[in-house]
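Ticket #4471: complex job returned nothing on first submit. Input attached below:
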Amino acid sequence: MIEIKNIVKEFNKLDENKKKIKILADNDISFEVNEGEVVGLLGPNGAGKTTLLRIIAGIMNPNKGSVKIDDKDYKNNELEIKKMISFLSGNTKLYKELSPIELMTMCGKYYNVDEKELNKRIDSIVKRFSMEKFKNQRIGTLSTGQTQRVGIARCLVHNPKYYIFDEATSGLDIISSKVILDFINEEKKNGKGILYSTHYMEEAENICDRVILLNKGRVIATGTPEEILKKTKTDNLRDAFFALIGDDNNA
Amino acid sequence: MRNVLITWKKELRGIFRDKKYLSIIFLMPLIIPMFIILMGGLYDSLDTNKGNVVAFNYEMTEVEKNILSSIDKDIEVKVNKNKDELQKMFDDGDINGYIVKENDTYYMYIDTSSSEGMTLSSLLSTYFEQYNNYLARNYLVEKGIDPGEVFNIVKYELKDQAKEGTNFFTNFLISFALIYLVMIITVTAMNTCTDIIAGEKERGTFETLLTFPLTSNEIIGGKLLAICTSCVISSLIGVGTSIPAFLYVKKNTVTFEALEFNFSAKTIILAIVALMLISAVVSVISIFLCGKAKTFKEAQSKVSFLSFIAIVPMFTSMMNVSNDVLYMIPIANGGQVLNDLFVDGITNSNYLMFAISSIVITLIALVYVAKQYKDENALF
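Support reply: We reran it on our side without changes. The output follows.
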């Protein structure tokens, strides 16, 4: 289980009032992601989703609060935790000078996967994502859709327990997005815990078991999509979000 | 260590699959042998007493001829009594200069803006000093005075301390070739470091790297090793191609014909270790300078400071700094150590000073850089 408790994050950079920039302002950012569950982190740009996911992925440290994965914290078990998770971001690019096979081999070696097992996994991943034709081509020469498939493929190499997706479908066409969404559904069935951030509300409504709505670094609602719709008396998450941030935005 | 090597391999793949970096690493060092051959030929033509042709508007006596040939045995003398024709010969390039005697004054017509003219001017001044000396001695003898009492009040003799086979030009060429080698290491480090450190952030692959189970020390270690490897390859190409270039110059020029190099197995091993240490220092300083840069441009401007440091060996070489402390100053000691190894010979203590100071500086900078990589401000 991914367990997030009272996370606060501020940056050393100063705002116009010469105060430290707070991204995750409240100390009430707490939630859990269980195995076999897809949790959506929703909110507009600048809500703090990426910062929060970077903290959970161990790329950033929070000023306050804690992240525990299977009861292990980053302070004492950083490398062990990183072996359990896989982080895929829409902003993250791949090494253009490597081929998909070279990239997956490199990732597998970083995760200390046994060489025989690694080769087996790579073969099955190549088949699963139909990468046979371009597996030895340099990533820099691949199309956006092919590159996206390679991006997902490299996340699978070490067979992680949890996935963290940050705006993974951002800027992709519907076919490329579908590849990712299908993948999420499949991995959920395989019992993997998935934390999925997006600003596409409709997308989240379809695949998330629970959602956390973020705005300006604050959690404005949590629950299943149905619970949130019921609470806000709206028909979709998009309207629910606007109903929830009405006061906050005017402030 | 395993993760350091995986990172190193990843970075090397990136470098060796990019034509820009391939040309820097493999082609740039070839400037050194080209420089050696070109400058070797040029210095040889500049060297004194070579190919001078001088004309006089009077017939020289046997004494005058003997004095002149004692100064330059290869000098060619022409005689033509017509000054206008002498000027024409000079304009046509048949002679390097000419002398016109009017009454008791000898006028030297030489173009001192050319290297040949400067050499000839110096040579003929020496000739006239010696000729004056000869006439003065004769005068004293005629007056019954022993010339030795007048001319040899103090005695002097040059005891040349130059190493056999070396002269101003050989030292100059060797120093410049070695300094160039240090500069090539610097340029290679600057370029590869900019790409490996800031380029990775700009391309958006750095975030991926951070999600892997790696420590910042392993990331920096792998990157440093890759930059260092590029520098070592580049410098070895430089040294490897310079040796035949020097041998070519030695074989085909007079100035460099007696030049001797030390190419023993021990020297070559020590030189390779020295190149690795110089590369390590330069690489870690490059990372130190551009570690916080987030864009390629920012890194380039930060690391450009290193190009100023790379000029230091040139100044120390020009100023002929021979202080032992020099061996402890990173980068500045690079050219000196290589020069000592191949030409002058190096003492164990000086080599040790160089090696220890390089290792210490690399480790200190490495610790700082690794700390820097734990700082989020350097990453995002």
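Chain B has two domains: 2-44+164-379, 48-151. Closing as resolved unless it happens again.
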